[in-house]
Amino acid sequence: MEIANESPVGVDSPTYGNRGAAAYLGVSPHTTNQWRVEGLGPEFVKMGSRVIYTRKSLDEFLASRSQRSTSETPKLPPRAERRRLRREHAGAHAAV
Q1: Exposed/middle/buried for 75, CB within 10 Å: 0-12, 13-18, 19+?
Q2: Where do the structural domains in the chain lie, given as residue ranges?
Q3: Which of 8, 9, 27, 85 would bridge 31 by S-S if both were Cys, CB 3.0 to 4.6 A apart?
Q4: Is the pTM of this model over 0.70?
Q5: Cβ(22)–Cβ(32) under 8 Å?
Q6: For residues 61 and 26, what is the distance between their CA atoms, to the nearest angstrom?
Q7: Of all helices (H) and strands (E), which one includes residue 90?
Q8: Distance (Å, whole) CA 33 – CA 38
């Protein structure tokens, strides 16, 4: 797992790069990339081209997604809503 030695964001918890965060969450690095683009994943810090997640932000993200039943409404938007958000995001960047 990709863990930085020191926390560059001034937090006591360890930090993770994209691959380490994905492994911690049990998803692929591609998924965490998509979540960042869509604004759906855990909070992160961008330092130059490097993306950094704290363990605290990963744990908070996991806690925010906890459910007691499969019939509860999912915390992330359904696939169609995610596609709409992607189109809006792409359109906003094209207009700039």
Answers
A1: exposed
A2: 3-94
A3: 27
A4: no
A5: yes
A6: 13
A7: helix 79-94
A8: 9
> Is beta strand 45-47 parallel, antiparallel or unpaired with respect to 15-16?
unpaired
Give Dmax (Cα) for the chain: 43
Between CA 54 and CA 89 the distance in angstroms is: 25
Amino acid identity for residue 82 in this structure: R
- As given in the structure block, the two tokens for residue 67 are 């459910």
Q: Is the dihedral of CA 16, 57, 69, 31 positive or negative?
A: negative
From residue 94, alpha-carbon distances to 49, 63, 73, 89, 90 in Å are 21, 35, 33, 9, 6
Residue-wise pLDDT tens digits, 54-63: 999 999 999 8
What is the pLDDT, as a whole number, of residue 23?
Answer: 94
Looking at residue 73, the DSSP 8-state letter turns out to be: P
